[in-house]
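The records we work with from here on pair a chain with its fold. Here is one such record, which you should read through line by line:
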Amino acid sequence: FGQDWFWRKKVAKLLKNAEPPILDLCSGPFTLGIFILKEKSCKLFALDLSFSMLTYGMQRLSEKKKLQKFKPYIFPLRGDAEVLPFKDKIFGGVSIAFGLRNLPHRKEAVKEFFRVLKPGGILAVLEFSLPKNRLFKKIYLFYLNYYMPWLGGVLTGDKQAYDYLADSIQKFPPPEEVKNYLRDAGFKHIKTQPLTMGIVTLYSGIKPY
């Protein structure tokens, strides 16, 4: 229902004051990166494991007139978010939207995010979560497990992808455990912000000086 626009806008606002450059992980076709650049014109490295995603993102930047102005700022890079191909203390901001859930070694990945951030740098993690309100949670789980896979299958012909999405969301650790990942990595001023009745959580932390 268009809520992803609202969620990504929150991340972009959070990183507005981050010192450049910025690193967007599991970037896909630069969906979040464009939101960040709308708030802040700066060099943005977009890293994704899928070369096809990066290629598609570059095609969009070239073909869509309203996106062409962002092309000079985006530097695509194929790579693994768990083993970042950068030296220490490079970025003023690191973002990852709906990618941490898919990483097999999340704790180690968060330590990598910490490593490449400059002192004072900001980490922003946007990830699915489960609502705390019992009634809304029941409605949401029905939507997640039955309606969304059915509709996704009808529209795309790939019901399995939506079954995986539902399963991975429910298996992802609760916000308190994710906060511990950030705390163990060394982040300070850690915050969690539930969005849209808690179906998504925005995590943030600062690398201390």
